[in-house]
Amino acid sequence: MFAIIFINSCVTTRSFDSSNICSIFKSNPQWKIITENTKKKWGTPVSLQLAFIKQESSFEKNAKPPRKKFLGVIPSKRISTAYGYSQALDGTWNDYKISTGNSDANRKNFKDASDFIGWYVDGTYKLLKIQKTDIYNNYLAYHEGRGGYQKKTFNKKKWLLTVAKKVEKQAILYSNQIKNCKFSNKKNSVL
Q1: Which of 3, 4, 46, 126 has its CA 20 to 30 A from that of 11?
Q2: So what's the pLDDT on residue 188?
Q3: 80 belongs to a structural domain
Q4: Total structural domains in the chain?
Q5: How far apart are CA 87 and CA 108, in angstroms?
């Protein structure tokens, strides 16, 4: 009996369609406010933030990369230190905390993850001059790191170019969807 309760408590169910911005914001109205605040602060489009989070963590706050396998079966270290909604690496997350003064930032916190993405995209614009609306190149710089982007490491990863196109298409879809979002309950209206 205890095992059944434990297993059920570990199962998470998503109450929204992650491909539809209206569904996301209807289920999580605070996320709309958070992402809009990030847009105001850093100039990073809401659609970019959500497309990155969808790709990186599928909106799972505890998301982690898979573990390597020792001898093909024994779980070993994880392939990277990426964690949380934004899948920020330990070092980059620490840079963010120091740079912003947000020493309590937590990768499992949606607000902090949104702000991190805004901060990262803003830094990418300052260093690499990639426009904040350029979803494709911003995703490549986000995934590979700014140094990797400058070295064009993504050109050796055809799969990553495909993923960047997918992220770009999702951001465009979110941007188009938001224009038609409607909510029946005015108290919970977020658009």
Answers
A1: 46
A2: 38
A3: no
A4: 1
A5: 10
Q: Give 53-107 pLDDT, tens digit per residue.
A: 999 999 999 866 554 555 556 654 545 678 799 999 999 999 999 999 999 999 9
Of the candidates 120, 150, 105, the one whose C-alpha atom is nearest the C-alpha of residue 53 is 120
Does the residue 130 lie in any domain? Answer: yes
* HEC string for the chain: CHHHHHHHHHCCCCCCCCCCHHHHHHHCHHHHHHHHHHHHHHCCCHHHHHHHHHHHHCCCCCCCCCEEEECCCEEEEECCCCECCCCECHHHHHHHHHHHCCCCCCCCCHHHHHHHHHHHHHHHHHHHCCCCCCHHHHHHHHHHHHHHHHCCHHHHCHHHHHHHHHHHHHHHHHHHHHHHCCCCCHHHCCC
- Determine phi and psi for 187, rounding to 5 degrees: -60, -35
Domain presence at residue 69: no
Q: Which domain holds residue 119?
A: 17-59+109-183
Retrieve residue 86's tokens.
Answer: 């934004």
**pLDDT at res. 191:** 35
Is-contact 146 95, C-beta < 8 A?
A: no
Tokens of 89: 């690496």
- Quick check: is 98 in a domain? no
Query: Phi, psi at residue 84, to the nearest 5°?
Result: 80, -170
